[in-house]
Amino acid sequence: MVEEFAKWGYPSWFHLLIGGSEVTLAALLLYPRTALLGAGGIIVIMLGAAYTHAVIEGKAGPAAFTLVLLALAALVGWIRRPSPAS
User: Distance between CA atoms of 33 and 67, rounded to whole angstroms?
Assistant: First the structure.
């Protein structure tokens, strides 16, 4: 992935930031109180990934896949959201 990030023009440390953020945000999905925050963060990362694949790389397939992951994150966030009584 280091080579891919470099090819796309991102700084060398960016893959560490994205990877760490993905792990942290995925952990937030485990708890209903933080699920919307986790899903929102993953959605932002997936929007960036879709942009990278579609615009910078010029490939629609990987961009579409990241949009599917975005939709799944939104669904998980919606399902795991806290109930109004909480």
Answer: 24
